[in-house]
Write a structure and sequence with these properties.
Layout lengths: L4 E9 L2 H17 L2 E8 L13 E7 L2 H9 L7 H7 E10 L5 H4 L1
Antiparallel strand pairs: 1-3, 1-4, 2-3
Helix pairs in contact: 1-3
């Protein structure tokens, strides 16, 4: 497997029922596919930047990009992902490579 990646999820809740249907099962499935929820958060305030705020933040550490892809593409989860899609709006899902420090970016 590759190196760890972080998935930053920012979104607004569009349907509580749909998102609850997703979240009831997603934590177990994320873990089964090599993911670990690192942080959950509710928007407080914009300190800097010009993006439209989202009300929810979830940060997930994945064992690798392959682990993330296995979660997204597992045919057993075809009925799960639509609950996330219909339960949210303004979804941002960005992947970040794990770094031990910033030196690789500053070369």
């Amino acid at each position: 497997m590759g190196t760890p990646v972080y998935a930053l999820n920012l979104f607004n809740v569009a349907s509580k029922d749909e998102y609850l249907a997703y979240s009831r099962r997603s934590a177990r499935e994320v873990q089964a596919h090599g993911g670990r929820v690192v942080a959950l958060g509710r928007f407080r305030e914009a300190a800097a930047g010009a993006i439209e705020p989202r009300s929810v933040m979830i940060l997930v550490e994945w064992a690798s990009k392959e682990a993330f892809d296995s979660y997204c593409n597992d045919p057993r989860l075809a009925d799960l992902h639509p609950h996330r899609v219909h339960g949210t709006r303004d979804y941002i899902w960005h992947l970040f490579d794990r770094l031990d420090d910033l030196r690789p970016l500053l070369k």
